[in-house]
Q: What sequence folds into this?
C-alpha cells in the first residue's frame, strides 16, 4: 500500500490475531516480534506520529505499550508482558529541528504522549500511519515547514529477531533550500520491571558517536532539540556510565546531522528490545552493530541482567559498533565473555 493511501488503511486494534476494524485511520498499534501474540518474546507499541507508549495496552504493569518483554514464570505469571517505558509517566518521544538560513530561523516539531513532563505534540502534522503483522509505518511533516518530513518504520530486527525491533528513521528535506543543523532527539523514561521507578541505567558509545551532540539520564526531558536537556545526575552528562541508580531515570540522546540539501534525506536506525540476561542483550547489540545504546535493568538485576535487560540503541549515527560483531553461531559466548570480562561495571549513584 502506498503511503499516500494510508488514510484508508485498516485500523488495527491489536496485532497478532486480534479483531480488525475497518474505517478511520489507525492512531496506534502494537507489533510482536514474531507477528503473533502467542509466540512473541517482545512487543513494541507505536503511536501514529512515531512515538511509543501506545494503546492498545497488552502489558500487565502499565496503561500503554512501549517496549515490553514476556517475563518467565520465575518473575511472575508465565506469558505476561511487562513494559519498561509505560508504567507511570508516558515519557517517551522524539523531536526534530532544522535551521532555515534564508530567513534565519529554526523550526522545531516534537511528539510525546505525556504533556506535563514531555511536552506532548507540537508543530507536527500526520501524513499517514499503517500497521500490520510485520511493521508499523508513520510519516509526519513539520506543520510550519511542510517540506520537511520524518518517517518512522518499525520492524523486527533481522539479526537479533528474538531481542530487538529496528525502527528506521528518515528525515527528508523536500523544500527548495539547504537546511542546516538538522537535529533529532529521542528520549525515554526507563521504568524497568520488577522494580519500576528504581532501575539501573547504563549508556555506552558516547565517545565514538561523532554525530551525538548531547546525552544523559534524564528520561523526563522534553524532546526539544533546542533546549531542555539537563541530566538528572550530573555525572551522566555526555559520557559513558554503567549502572547509575537505583532511581527513576532514563536516557536522552540528541544528534546533529549537519546540513541537508534540498531533495536529500538522512536515514538512521533506532533499536528497542529486551532479553532475559545482560549477556543476551549485549549479544543482540553486537549482532546489529549498534553504535550507541542504553540498558535498563531492575534493582537487583543490574549484574546478571535477569529477569530482563531492556535495550535502547542507535546505528547510522556516525559511530562504530560498541561491541565487536560476533562470528555466526557465537552470540551467546560473546555475550558471556563481555559480561564476565570486558564490560567494566562502574556504578554511579
A:
Amino acid at each position: 500500500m502506498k503511503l499516500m493511501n494510508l488514510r484508508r488503511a485498516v485500523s488495527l486494534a491489536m496485532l497478532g490475531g486480534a479483531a480488525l476494524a475497518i474505517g478511520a485511520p489507525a492512531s496506534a498499534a502494537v507489533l510482536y516480534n514474531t507477528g503473533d501474540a502467542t509466540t512473541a518474546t517482545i512487543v513494541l507499541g507505536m503511536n501514529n506520529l512515531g512515538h511509543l507508549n501506545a494503546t492498545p495496552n497488552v502489558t500487565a504493569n502499565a496503561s500503554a505499550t512501549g517496549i515490553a518483554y514476556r517475563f518467565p514464570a520465575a518473575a511472575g505469571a508465565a506469558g505476561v508482558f511487562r513494559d519498561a517505558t509505560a508504567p507511570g509517566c508516558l515519557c517517551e518521544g522524539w523531536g526534530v529541528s532544522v535551521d532555515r538560513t534564508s530567513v534565519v530561523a529554526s523550526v522545531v516539531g516534537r511528539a510525546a504522549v505525556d504533556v506535563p513532563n514531555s511536552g506532548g505534540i507540537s508543530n507536527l502534522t500526520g501524513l499517514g500511519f499503517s500497521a500490520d503483522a510485520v511493521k508499523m509505518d508513520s510519516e509526519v511533516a513539520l506543520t510550519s515547514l511542510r517540506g520537511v518530513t520524518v518517517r518512522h518504520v518499525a520492524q523486527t530486527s533481522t539479526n537479533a529477531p528474538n531481542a530487538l525491533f529496528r525502527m528506521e528513521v528518515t528525515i527528508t528535506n523536500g523544500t527548495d533550500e539547504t537546511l542546516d543543523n538538522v537535529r533529532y532527539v529521542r528520549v525515554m523514561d526507563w521504568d524497568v520491571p520488577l522494580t519500576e521507578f528504581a532501575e539501573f541505567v547504563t549508556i555506552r558509545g558516547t565517545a565514538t558517536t561523532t554525530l551525538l551532540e548531547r546525552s544523559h539520564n534524564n528520561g523526563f526531558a522534553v524532546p526539544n532539540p533546542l533546549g531542555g536537556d539537563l541530566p538528572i545526575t550530573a555525572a551522566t552528562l555526555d559520557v559513558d556510565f554503567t549502572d547509575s541508580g537505583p532511581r527513576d531515570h532514563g536516557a536522552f540522546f540528541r544528534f546533529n546531522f549537519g546540513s541537508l540539501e534540498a531533495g536529500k534525506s538522512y536515514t538512521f536506525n533506532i533499536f528497542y528490545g529486551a532479553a532475559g540476561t545482560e549477556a543476551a542483550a549485549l549479544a543482540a547489540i553486537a549482532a546489529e552493530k549498534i553504535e550507541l545504546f542504553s540498558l535498563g535493568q531492575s534493582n537487583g538485576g543490574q549484574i546478571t541482567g535477569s529477569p530482563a535487560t531492556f535495550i535502547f540503541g542507535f546505528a547510522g549515527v556516525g559511530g562504530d559498533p560498541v561491541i565487536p560483531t560476533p562470528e555466526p553461531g557465537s552470540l551467546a559466548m560473546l555475550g558471556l565473555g563481555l559480561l564476565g570480562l570486558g564490560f567494566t561495571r562502574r556504578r554511579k549513584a
About this structure: Confidence is low (pLDDT under 50) at residues 1-23, 330-342, 344-349.
